[in-house]
Amino acid sequence: MDLEGKRIAVLAADLYQEMEIWYPLLRFREEGAETVAVGAEAGKTYSSKKGYPVVADQSIADTHAQDFDAVVIPGGWAPDTLRQDERMLNFVREMDKAGKVVAAICHAGWVLCSADILRGRQATCFKAIKDDMIHAGAQYVDEEVVVHGNLITSRMPTDLPAFCREIVKALKTQAVARHAAKG
């Protein structure tokens, strides 16, 4: 239970890649973290590219960087929706500015591009959006996982073990965020 007391937001929108939401949600729960599926609306069911559901535990409107230790952005086509929501982008920017873990896999690099947090940083992504990442200022690296400070990126579902391993490693060295009292 290496992540006891940690809170991790996992962003959700329709057409996400199944493994890229569920693998981190379950993997980090195994480590003792509280994982929170965050969508545009709390309680809404979002469907994967193949129809697999995930229910948002919390609305992005009620989600604040000071309450979380990390944000995980899954791929699939969901990032194209997520990056059009300024609230999602602001949350990612706030997490990055606070030095908290910002983790993106596959097409999730689109969110990083739109949040404008890639300039001068090494990152990877699915090959189809490599040019987008470079144009947003990233120094593209074709590796299964790339860690640049608090930014952790991976290319595709087969990279999930390395991706999650680096997130766990980063969170083990980070102080627990002060979480707002629920009530």
Summarize the structure.
With 183 residues, the chain is α/β, with parallel strands linked by helices. Helix content is 31%, strand content 22%.
What does the model show?
With 183 residues, this protein is α/β, with parallel strands linked by helices. The protein has one domain (7-172): Class I glutamine amidotransferase (GATase) domain (Rossmann fold), CATH 3.40.50. The chain has 6 helices and 11 strands. It has helices at residues 18-30, 78-82, 86-97, 109-115, 130-135, 160-172, and strands at 7-11, 34-39, 45-47, 53-55, 58-59, 70-73, 101-105, 122-123, 139-140, 145-148, 151-154. The chain has a 7-stranded mixed β-sheet, sandwiched between helices. Helix 3 packs across helix 4.
Q: Topology, please?
A:
Layout: E1 7-11, H1 18-30, E2 34-39, E3 45-47, E4 53-55, E5 58-59, E6 70-73, H2 78-82, H3 86-97, E7 101-105, H4 109-115, E8 122-123, H5 130-135, E9 139-140, E10 145-148, E11 151-154, H6 160-172
Parallel strand pairs: 1-2, 1-6, 2-5, 6-7, 7-11, 8-9
Antiparallel strand pairs: 3-4, 10-11
Helix pairs in contact: 3-4
In terms of quaternary structure, the protein is single chain
What is the CATH superfamily label? Class I glutamine amidotransferase (GATase) domain
Label the overall shape. Answer: globular
Task: Quote the CATH topology.
Answer: Rossmann fold
Tell me the span between the first and last alpha carbons: 26 Å
- Radius of gyration from the alpha-carbon trace, in angstroms: 15 Å
For the sheet with most strands, the description reads: 7 strands, mixed
Unreliable spans are none
